[in-house]
Write a structure and sequence with these properties.
With 143 residues, the protein is α+β, with helices and mostly antiparallel strands. Helices cover 22% and strands 24% of the residues. A 6-stranded mixed β-sheet has the order 2-3-1-4-6-5, with helices on both faces. 27% of the residues are buried.
Length: 143
Amino acid sequence: MCQLIYIGSSADLGELPFNAVAPGFYYRRITSDEQGYDSVQRLLPLPYLYFMGGSQGCSCTLTYTEPWENAPELNAEREIAMAEVGRMLTFLNEQLQRAELLLLCTWWDKAEAKMDVTETYMLTGLGDTFEFPLDKVLRLQSR
């Protein structure tokens, strides 16, 4: 099961396509022929809709937990995720200077669910852990 992060924007953000040679944080515009588009459009009622992902293609590397004491191989994955989250937060903070942004973080099988709750969410820097609240529409604000 994969995590999905969608952004609705009042301005065109362009695109940073997935790079299979050097994978990392990316975002792309979603189109009306994609599964779940109608639900995303209903939940994020802004003219430009995007999917944000990381090195695995989905949004799972745009979250991380506290360091693992007995599993250094997981800490290496955590370091990759921290770098990707850092690039994502920088991108979102830059875009907030010129656009309204709404965000939805959900699991792949809940994209059709009713998530009509909107909360204001303050973007912060990196900490010991990072994860957007799930299944809520977040109105992003810069720190």
